[in-house]
Amino acid sequence: MPRMRRALVLTALLLTVAPAAAPAAPPAPPKLGATLEACTTSALPVERIASFVGSMPARAGATHMRMRFDLERRKPGERRWRRIRAEGFGVWEHANPRVAGFVFNRRVTSLPVPAVYRALVRFEWKTADGTTRKRAREHTAACRQPDLRPDLVPGALTAVLDQPPGLAVYTLLVRNIGRSQAGPSSVRVGTASVELAALEAGGERAVPVVALACLPLTPVVVRVDADRRIEESAELGNGVRRQCPLVLG
């Protein structure tokens, strides 16, 4: 019996000196701010993304908070920012009543290029009866979206008569002067078309096309990306007229 009593006393002492678990500290309320969370550039429209975040803490005397994002754009050569329409922008987002803070994310994709984008974020704190207690507004950092699309252009055209009567083998130099690879496309000389494989940025390729022989000093219409499969940085200049390169003698 004495041995059991000593064991019970020792257990009681251990329980007495064990530290109590500290209560978890409540999370700190968010600070007032507007930030550019992500800016993704790409030659593909769906991958050109800007993501903005607004945050606001609760304020004494206000029971409701709301936030609004407006998208602004500045194109090359423009001095002023212009507000533009985008899905989800220009509307108020509301927080649940009586929360410690409000954080909201707004994302936009398929941004036209080249341009720079930012968000104007507005904040409002209201009472239960709808009275506005305070307003604030901040701009995010800018998201620069360069034009990374390919740009195919036709170069020099040469030709030699083919063995079948009335036909010629034309060779058109095709260049990609854009900033990314151009996917497969078609090249047309006169009324004949051929397939062109992908062409890297800064690359060029001589493309043979068998078509009706032209007459000397008459124009030949040539076109790159003839079926408009590729989104290019400049669509003008895909089709040009070249003087017939055949010399008959």
Walkthrough of the structure:
With 249 residues, the protein is mostly beta strands. The protein has two domains: 33-145, Immunoglobulin-like (Sandwich), CATH 2.60.40; 152-243, Immunoglobulin-like, CATH 2.60.40. It contains one helix and 16 strands. The protein has one helix at residues 2-17; strands at residues 33-40, 49-57, 64-74, 82-84, 92-94, 101-109, 115-126, 132-139, 143-145, 152-161, 167-176, 185-189, 192-196, 204-212, 219-224, 239-243. Strands 3, 4, 5, 7, 8 and 9 form a six-stranded antiparallel sheet that branches. Strands 13-12-15-16 form a four-stranded antiparallel sheet, with no helix packed on it. The protein is rod-shaped and about 90 Å long.
Main features:
Immunoglobulin-like; rod-shaped; 1 helix; four-stranded antiparallel β-sheet; 2 domains; 249 residues; mainly beta; 16 strands; six-stranded antiparallel β-sheet
Q: What's the structural blueprint in terms of helices and strands?
A:
Elements: H1 2-17, E1 33-40, E2 49-57, E3 64-74, E4 82-84, E5 92-94, E6 101-109, E7 115-126, E8 132-139, E9 143-145, E10 152-161, E11 167-176, E12 185-189, E13 192-196, E14 204-212, E15 219-224, E16 239-243
Antiparallel strand pairs: 1-2, 2-6, 3-4, 3-5, 3-7, 7-8, 7-9, 10-11, 11-14, 12-13, 12-15, 15-16
Number of helices: 1
Query: CATH fold name of the largest domain, please?
Result: Immunoglobulin-like
Strand content: over 45%
Number of spatially distinct domains:
2
Distance from first to last alpha carbon = 129 Å
| CATH-scheme architecture of the largest domain | Sandwich
User: What is the average per-residue confidence, as pLDDT, rounded to a whole number?
Assistant: 90
Order of helices and strands: HEEEEEEEEEEEEEEEE
Unreliable sequence segments:
3-18
DSSP E strands, number: 16
Can you give the helix content as a percent range? under 10%
The largest pleated sheet is described as: 6 strands, antiparallel
Gyration radius over CA? 34 Å
User: Which structural class do the helices and strands define?
Assistant: mainly beta
